[in-house]
Design goal:
Keywords: Cytoplasm, Methyltransferase, S-adenosyl-L-methionine, Transferase. With about 210 residues, this protein is α/β, with parallel strands linked by helices. The protein contains 6 helices and 9 strands, in the order ααββαβαβαββαβββ. Helix 1 runs antiparallel to helix 2 and helix 2 packs across helix 4. It binds S-adenosyl-L-homocysteine (SAH).
Length: about 210
């Protein structure tokens, strides 16, 4: 598979749709225009890659819907060189969006099959996260903490305490919280001991599961 002008045209249309749905962050929209989402998916879904929909990937997981990726990334309010922890590497598409926004990305995946597949894909494509880890994101990544930003791309029944504790003061955690449906939730660490919490409507994610598989 390769990237063509036709794909680029479809990405421009997708970015336009995301603007209509309320995405305003220019660097996020640039990432959507730039990143060949069709290459992150099985070839059987290639024709659908630029619809604003989630699709199946390996290990019964999904590549998030472009609007969701854009919305979560916009909420992060990224600045260049920030250290960002991502829980749920999956297809690597969200990782690529973070990298395009010039973040230093540490990404964790609990499914071995996906971890292996996506790690290879990053190499092939020249995407360079700081670390690609096979592990349980519930625990965060104490060795590399604290982080400027943390993004969780699976539905968490509750907010893992470890993630809150690994945020810098001034840092932001964006996490979908809930069982059947999730409420997109933003935590900002305002002081060593205090956090503010803001909620942003409901989304649907595959579940955040404990341990490795
Ligand atoms: N950002 C990804 C979303 C993939 S779906 C993309 O756009 O492709 C969510 C991913 O989170 C799945 O790959 C799932 O295996 C992973 N996941 C679920 N629980 C996890 C955990 N505790 N630690 C790390 N990854 C987890």
């Amino acid at each position: 598979m390769k990237d063509t002008l036709k794909h680029r045209g479809m990405r421009n249309q997708l970015a336009q749709l995301l603007i209509e749905k309320g995405i305003t962050d220019a660097k996020v929209l640039d990432a959507i225009r730039d990143i060949p989402r069709h290459l992150f998916m099985d070839s059987s879904f290639e024709g659908h890659a630029y619809q604003d929909k989630a699709f199946p990937i390996a290990a019964n997981q999904t590549i998030s819907q472009p609007y969701t990726v854009a919305f979560q990334t916009q909420l992060l309010e990224l600045k260049p060189s920030m250290h960002v922890l991502e829980i749920g590497t999956g297809s690597g598409y969200q990782t690529a969006v973070l990298l395009k926004c010039r973040a230093k990305v540490f990404t964790i995946e609990r499914q071995l099959e996906l971890f292996k597949k996506t790690s290879l894909f990053f190499k092939k494509m020249g995407y360079r996260p700081k670390k690609t880890i096979f592990g349980d994101g519930y625990k965060g990544l104490p060795k590399d903490a604290p982080f400027d930003r943390i993004i969780v791309t699976a539905g968490a029944p509750e907010v893992p305490k470890a993630l809150l504790s690994q945020l810098k003061v001034g840092g932001r955690l964006v996490i979908p919280v809930g069982f059947e449906e999730q409420i997109m939730t933003l935590y900002v660490r305002t002081t060593e001991k205090e956090f503010t919490k803001e909620e942003f409507g409901s989304f649907k994610f595959v579940p955040l599961l404990e341990d490795k598989n």
